[in-house]
Amino acid sequence: MSLSVFDAMQQALKYGEQYGADLLEIRGDDVAHVTISSEKLNIKDTRVFRRIGIGVRAYVNGATGYSFTTLLSKPSVKDVVSKAVKSAKVAGQYASLRLKPAEYKPAKAKYSIDVKQNPSEIDFEEKKEMLLRGEQAARDAGVDVATTRANYGEACGRKFFTNSEGTEISREVLLVSIGFTVVSRRGSILADAHDSHGGSFGLEAFRDEYSPETLGRNAAEWAAEKLEGKKAPAGKFSSLIDNVLAGVMAHESFGHLSEFDFVFTGASPLRGRLNQQLGSEHATIIDEGIVDLPKYPGFILPYDDEGVKTKRVVLLDQGVLKGYLHLRGTAGAVGAEPTGNGRAVDYRFEPICRMRNTYFDKGELKVEEALELLDNGIYACGTSGGQVSLDGTFMFKAVRGYWIENGEKKHPFRDLAIRGHILDFLKAVQGRCNDLKIHSSYFGGCGKGGQYPLPVGLGGPHLLLKEATFGGEQG
Amino acid sequence: MAIPSLDELISFAEKVAAKAKAYGAEEAESYVLWGQSLDAEIQGGLVSIREGETAGIGVRAVIGKRVGFAAASSIDERKAFDAAEKAVKVAQIRPEDPKFVQLPDPVKRESRSGQFDEKILDVTGTDIVKAVKNIVEEAKEVDSRITYVGGSIGLVVNQFAVANTRGINVGDRGTGIAGGIYCKAKQNAEDRTGTESIFSRKLVDFTGIGTTAARRAIESLGAKKLDAPKTLPVIFDSYTSTMFLSLLSYAVSARSVQESRSALGGKMGEKVAWKNFTVKDDSWMQDGMRTAEYDAEGIPTTVKPVIEKGVLKNYLYDSYTAHNEGKTSTGNAARGSGESYLQTPGISPVNWYVEPGKKPLEDLVTEVDEAILVRFSLMGVGHSNYISGDFSVVATNPFYIRKGTIVYPLHPITVAGNVYEALTNIIEIGSDLRLSLTGKSPSILISSLSCTP
Asked: How many CB atoms within 10 Å of residue B309?
């Protein structure tokens, strides 16, 4: 006999009372996904799936045990609760560092996201048309187009949280994005470019600068440009980076190091550096659950997966380290306020310390002014991602770039790799523009501890850097 | 919980495929996964244990040239039938895919399963947390300059079944265990990392990997800066050489080739690598982490050379791409790891196997005058340009070689080049095969790559 997610969670709490955990948390997911992809104007892959399951976390003596199941029958729920508590008891015997869930006032809340065209209520036909319209625009605008691809993805549903303290949260999950890729080919040169838009909004967001046609055309024009692009130079250059690249720098290179599990355990170089000047006065980095930018809301997260209301955290304030991102358990252990950064990708995993929407805050400069200030250097845009090591070393790929001379675009580059140490990077920020944008995407997301893809928002304004290291191929 | 038998899973898959047909599909396929996992992790003293079951079903329903896919994270019959019904609905409304021919017919040919270790079923949370504690403690004891140690061990038992209305009804099962450790060492202002990991289908003793990882972090201390950007020979050790395989996987996928996204498109039978470079897709590797008798569409897997003595010999096919060329699938349909039932089949090698050379890594070092040895890990491989093959990766633990000797560790450097040029510029291949998640590969020496401090 299969229970509803809600009933299964109530049942789990009831069983939990007998097993003797210090704190028991139950999470439930019911989220439906739709993805559509097309290639060369043919719809290729269309899939829908629904992820339903529950996960149980038990705290015993500062250590945690976690168990999960998709099978929502009474015996299965009972088994999961007993496994979580048993594991926590074992883990408690081996811990030398302990979590302590911070005190908080149990809340009962239901959160919904208000949009005009909720993707879950819109016909397949309309979503398909968006892809084909954008792809057609890309093909019309492109040069030597070898192939075009388009992707649509949505996640709509609810996540539930309850714990043995009486907290009960139900929050809506909403994420939608579209993206277009164009590959141009001339002889042996293959050049690809991509543009996309996504976030917690309805389909009404895909218009004007984010209409499928505009996104498709951008990808086509950038791919055409890259056909003429030179190989990336290597060495140190002054540079300007765009919103997207600024966003991944804020998230990947700095944000992860501010996650307090890394700080608590000694893995992060930011340990013990609170109130120190780590960056220039232009470097302000914020992480928050709900961003007040209607056009670019990123991913809306009102409560985290530990039932904590998400707080705005100023991580870096004009270069000074002001905060860390906490789990409830690390906040309690060091006497800090919980920030609402305990997140799990789905019911199969326990919450770990994660970001929400992470961005460099904006300044006053216009992009044209920043280009003038740059004078000679590299303008790097977009990214296919990157990686950071816990020692602070990072590398990111910018997917396009331009050589700037006397404040003007001279010639494009093909792919660029930008690398360095995050603390050097933060010191090198010498100007910030006024064009703050935050993006999120259904495709991809953040990965940590085997949990991928977690939806996050990231962004920033254009940032001017005194010096950045580019590690391309020479010659 | 009781573990469902493979036969039960297969008949369940058949039942759901038949149900999709009853809902209106002309043909249908269902893929069922049931998996059990247990992990323990120690992060600098924090301990957590996680245990659970992952199960679900993915259904493909076909109407003419329209294929719908729907999945559910459950093997509850009602939810599975819901998924079957949704798959049919998606097929009814989506446009035709002119390249789709049909779901695969059963293929009869020899194939093999990988190792299955019954003993893994008896491992408890206490067993693995003790094993993690052991490797973490041994790492800490190596040197007082070790400032952080994180370790984890996880095991899985997986069973999958595929059935379609053309008569395929097969499945396989496997066990796996993996352990990894990550250490940081600090000396003055210098922070270095050291890692080690082991993958196995059978229970294995992880003792020693903590010591190894910690020593690697310590050996990387006292690093100097590469004095200037240089074009140098580069030795990739058996850990970092997997980078080439990751890019190659993309290029030899028949889908990349058919969609003009592969730099190896149209090069069948041509020389694409060094004359002694041979790599095969060894789907039957007994200890290979992805070995299975059948692929994700229920086609028997095969062993075949992909590049033999430098010559391109085979692309990898699933049934979709094979039917497009009037061929039979090579058994390379894959749905990824984890919640595989949520994915439609794509193409992937099962286990890469790079033919090893005769010399150990130390001998490769003695053969170069000035060179770089990149060890243990690379950052940014996934961000290479898979279409053109251009890569620019950060080597976290590089070493400087002068006159055939490793003289000192270097600060991280960027190594950049093009993977297809690099494959033709191989000078030597080591004898030190190492098993990773993607197969087995040895050290590889490339004649020249751009290295930037």
From this structure: 14
Q: Do A97 and B46 touch (CB under 8 A)?
A: yes
Number of H helices, E strands in chain B: 9, 21
DSSP A309: B
**Interface contact flag, B43 A87, Cβ < 8 Å:** no
Residue A94: closest C-alpha in chain B: B47
What tokens appear for B349 in the block?
Answer: 């090698």
- Signed CA dihedral, B425, B431, B436, B437: sign only: positive
Q: Do A232 and B392 touch (CB under 8 A)?
A: yes
Is residue A465 within 8 Å of residue A283, measured between CB atoms?
A: no
In the DSSP assignment, the letter for residue B345 is -
Q: In terms of pTM, does the model score above 0.90?
A: yes
> What is the complex's ipTM, to 2 decimals?
0.90
Q: Could you tell me if B40 lies within 8 Å of chain A, comparing CB atoms? A: yes
Beta bridge partners of A147: A183
- In CATH, what class is B6-212? alpha beta
Q: Do B342 and A192 touch (CB under 8 A)?
A: no
Which residues in chain B are closer than 8 Å to A267, comparing Cβ atoms?
Answer: 43-44, 148, 150, 184
Q: Spell out the alpha helix ranges (H) of B94-186.
A: 125-142
Contact assignment for B50 to A387 by CB distance below 8 Å: no
A-B C-beta contacts closer than 8 Å = 264
Structural domains of chain A, with CATH: 5-110 (3.30.2290.10), 111-156+169-227 (3.30.2290.10), 234-471 (no CATH)
Prior bond to A453 cis, omega within 30? Answer: yes
CB-side neighbour CA atoms (13 Å) of A166: 5
Q: Is A260 strand, coil or helix? A: helix
- The minimum CA-CA distance between B110 and chain A, rounded to whole Å, is 31
Residues 311-370 of B with CB under 8 A from A: 339, 342, 344
Which chain A positions have a beta carbon within 8 Å of B72's beta carbon? 49-50, 52
Beta-carbon separation of A267 and B58 below 8 A: no
Q: Which residue intervals of chain B bear CATH 3.30.2290.10? A: 6-212
Is B72 part of the contact surface with chain A (CB cutoff 8 Å)? yes
The rounded distance, in Å, linking the Cα atoms of A193 and A181 is 6
- Pick B48's closest partner by Cβ from A46, A63, A68: A63
| Structure token pair of residue A363 | 């300044």
Q: How close, in Å, is residue A365 to chain B by CA atoms?
A: 31
Q: Does A95 sit within 8 Å of B45, measured CB to CB?
A: yes
Tokens in use for B412? 């991280």
Q: How far is CA B112 from CA B6, B154, B186, B300, B327, in A?
A: 16, 25, 48, 8, 22
Contact A266 B44 (CB under 8 A): yes
CB-based contact B125 A65, cutoff 8 Å:
yes
Tens of pLDDT, residue by residue, chain B (453 residues): 467 899 999 999 999 999 999 999 999 999 999 999 999 999 999 999 999 999 999 999 999 999 999 999 999 999 999 999 999 999 998 889 999 999 999 999 999 999 999 999 999 999 999 999 999 999 999 999 999 999 999 999 999 999 999 999 999 999 999 999 999 999 998 989 999 999 999 999 999 999 999 999 999 999 999 999 999 999 999 999 999 999 999 999 999 999 888 999 999 999 999 999 999 999 999 999 999 999 999 999 999 999 999 999 999 999 999 999 999 999 999 998 889 999 999 999 999 999 999 999 999 999 999 999 999 999 888 888 888 898 989 999 999 999 999 999 999 999 999 999 999 999 999 999 999 999 999 999 999 999 998
